[in-house]
Amino acid sequence: MAGIQWRAAVVVGVDSSQSSRAAVRWAAGEAARRDSVLKLLHIDSGRRDRGVADNLTAASVAKEAEPAVPTEHEVKLGEITGELVAASRSASLLVLGTHGFGALRGTPIGTVAAEVAGHAGCPVVVVRGLTAPRRGEVVVGVDPSGDSEHALAFALDSASARNTDLVVVHAWHDGVLEAGADLASVEAAEERALEDRMAAWRDKYPGVGLRLAVVRDRNVARALIRAVPHAGLIVIGSSGGGLGSTAQALLSRARCPVALIGGPARG
Question: Which domains does the chain possess?
């Protein structure tokens, strides 16, 4: 394939767990959609041979899922969080399973993701579940502050690449309203604000079907999960320094991959 210019790699964390294999399958599909190399990365505290074996197994899983996607292998000896953040700086996407990564086998990935996502140089996707990824709609959570613009861009790109709809969810609650406030009027105003905010995005992505959902719910994670019970991907912004309660809840309860977007995504 001489002459082909591959985009920045999709990097996936590899170990011997079933969760890791699910992440590899998902990452291989994403690399195919992006015309990217898939980089298989094993991080361990001291055993390189284990990493080589796990990477060879992962390569077979990736080949079965997406035969045309080229793969690279790397084994790093070191501290898992720092090595993942370092790898993210030259990647277009960092993909992790939910449990059992290298030197931290058996540790829930939420513990790792909480440290990685806030410092990563690219979006981080945590692949939940051990079965084949679902091909449902993409769901993105937005807030009125405007801090979710990077998450919106990633979600729209993802929906476009998958040829599926995007469901944009804004959850609000009445806890900050004065007593006796007209909740129907407040909700109508929230709906208008979301419509106005999405107008420019509709023009930029005319081929993506958009559904807007304004939901009265204090629990944003619950609102996102209920909006599309069979979603293929949930996207949410993550603030610098770690994960908020919504992202933590999604990593525990969502039934599909969760994308954590901390800044502009690289292609």
Answer: 7-126 (3.40.50.620), 138-261 (3.40.50.620)
